[in-house]
Specification:
six-stranded mixed sheet; five-stranded mixed sheet; 13 strands; 18% strand
Length: 434
């Protein structure tokens, strides 16, 4: 009874938080750019975020990483980055996910016009030149070469490909060495013309500057940004059924085993999104409770939701000397090669989902999820509403708090019926199949 009361209290506090915080001023320019302005008297900084609602899901076939390179080239100037960090005492960065590109710039509120000018120039007159293209391409290739030395990264991208194939979420957002080599300067110009448009973006501003002054500056500096002729919808051919035979790959580490198990999850705007996210917390407890030997920072279950249905993925990392792994497909598939094996761990979602969710598991998981949800910034919530075509921030809060044990068990039952792929990375001594 006390736990139920605690849930009600958390729910009430979350709703009160959203209502108590000042709602942003919402405007839309003639070119379709949506503007959110928070007038925050408690800060002496200005934080600006521009989100383009198209990400690497729109990479051209065989050119994965195209949208990530576009994000990089928008702020290719190291001199500009240094100026923002040293003179404006702020920060500047770009991010590209499967669902969006986002540019973030912060600095002293006295320099708000300078911040707007930097951002406006980056998106309306991007320096997509041969020199900058070669620069960002070289930098991203170097990052990928380092990532490919990481078994955890290889396991993540491999299980996504195993589950989804050439479906956008089966490809790494940052691209591959091979796909980056196929990208040309003209591809970035094509992506800029098609997706980098005012009516495909939302601009978020938090500052202590008067909102009327902010809006006037936005109209002046962003009003000339080109509007698209047509927004490209996120519709893709659904992936073929995956091969559910356990895949074993050669690891680079001598001492660690990386295991993954994945199935198709819910979309971010699906009614089951919150139940699936809470379910991931429950399954995290179950996989971690099997052994004290595992690296718990790298062992968890996560629900990777996107505009279209994404992935529920179990990730496990353990010392090779202390474990053998089991999946439903093949018992003792990746047994350790030393003389003794201390622990056998079941890592497959087939096993983790076998038993119904209990009340205790649900209450603990929901409380943890709501705490994380509550810690998200208002800007994140409002931008997500536009990216994922959600009803409203208030509606999201209500849905998060109204999830019941029955909802989570219903989603778990639906997931049990889906194809599950399992993958293991281990250094030699294990049978291999692809």
């Amino acid at each position: 009874m006390l736990r139920k009361f605690a849930f009600l209290l958390i729910s009430f506090c979350l709703i009160q938080l959203i209502q108590a915080q000042s709602q942003p001023r919402q405007e839309r320019l003639l070119n379709g750019l949506k503007v959110l302005i928070w007038n925050d008297k408690q800060t002496n900084k200005t934080s600006v975020r521009l989100r383009i609602h198209s990400g690497s899901a729109f990479d051209l076939k065989g050119k994965t990483g195209m949208m990530a390179l576009l994000a990089d080239i928008l702020l290719a100037s190291e001199q500009t980055k240094k100026f923002v960090r040293e003179d404006l005492e702020g920060d500047i960065k770009t991010e590209c996910t499967h669902d969006y590109i986002e540019i973030s710039i912060s600095g002293k509120s006295d320099d708000i016009l300078t911040i707007f000018e930097i951002l406006s120039t980056a998106i309306t007159k991007p320096a997509i030149t041969k020199e900058n293209f070669e620069k960002v391409l070289s930098a991203r290739m170097a990052k990928l070469e380092e990532l490919q030395k990481d078994d955890a990264y290889i396991a993540d991208i491999s299980v996504a490909k195993r589950l989804l194939g050439e479906f956008p979420y089966g490809r790494p957002s940052e691209g591959t060495i091979e796909s980056l080599k196929a990208i040309e300067l003209a591809d970035l110009i094509f992506a800029k013309d098609r997706y980098l448009t005012a009516d495909n973006a939302t601009l978020s501003i938090r500052s202590n500057v008067d909102s009327d002054s902010v809006y006037m500056a936005v109209r002046r500096l962003f009003g000339g940004w080109r509007k698209s002729d047509k927004i490209i919808p996120a519709t893709f051919r659904q992936p073929d059924p995956p091969d559910t035979n356990t895949q074993v790959l050669e690891a680079q580490s001598e001492n660690l085993i990386e295991a993954r198990s994945a199935l198709r999850g819910a979309a971010r705007n699906d009614k089951n999104f919150f139940a699936a996210s809470i379910l991931a917390k429950v399954l995290t407890y179950r996989i971690r409770n099997q052994s004290a030997q595992m690296n718990k920072d790298k062992t968890f279950v996560v629900h990777q939701a996107h505009f279209l249905p994404g992935i529920l993925i179990a990730k496990l990392s353990m010392p090779k000397f202390s474990i053998s792994l089991q999946s439903e497909n093949e018992n003792n598939l990746a047994q350790n090669t030393t003389e003794t094996t201390q622990i056998t761990t079941k890592f497959s979602l087939t096993d983790l989902l076998r038993e119904k969710i209990t009340s205790n598991e649900f209450e603990k998981a929901k409380a943890e999820f709501l705490n994380e949800f509550n810690s998200k910034s208002l800007e994140d919530l409002w931008l997500d509403v536009d990216t994922f075509k959600l009803v409203s921030v208030q509606d999201e809060v209500q849905k998060a708090n109204s999830v019941r044990l029955e909802d989570v068990n219903k989603v778990a039952e639906e997931f049990r019926q889906k194809p599950i792929v399992n993958l293991i990375l281990i250094k030699s001594g294990a049978p291999k199949n692809n």
